[in-house]
Amino acid sequence: MSARLTAALLLCAFAWHTESARTDIEKTTLALTRDVEPEKDAASVNIEGCSTSTYRIVKEGEGETTAHKGDTLVLDVVSKCANNACAEWWNTKSYEMIAGNGRSILGMDQGVIGMKKGETRFLVVGPECGFGSDGLSAHGIPGGATIEMTLEAIRVTSDMRGKCMNFSTAW
Description:
Blueprint: H1 3-25, E1 45-47, E2 50-59, E3 72-81, E4 89-98, H2 106-111, E5 120-125, E6 147-157, H3 160-164
Antiparallel strand pairs: 1-2, 2-5, 3-4, 3-6, 5-6
């Protein structure tokens, strides 16, 4: 193995470990309430692939690391049905997800792309990117419901392992 490749591998390993350790130490939590909504004049942004879903930034995040597909986020999540269509609201602390992997509803999966640590977003997720026409009766979500979510990014961790493993194109 060449000296340059060895040095590059060591730098990536160090960067990944340092980011993980630093974000664990700096983890902070803001209390979110079910009534958090963005300012009325804040610009809405369409969520990619979801024609009836939008987000608004309620609070700007910090740092340069933004969530990309495959990155891990730890979020505090408050969600409810729009227009009180559901009897309940949900408050989930330290929800860990991988952006863009398809394991969350599409509106949330795509709505976290670009978030920074400390950022709070208000998402409005239409049924085609939420729970569809069937809803989720086990949780009291009727078919066709629009979901409102407030997400706070507690931690955004770049998937350094995947980005550091292909050195053939870098050298």
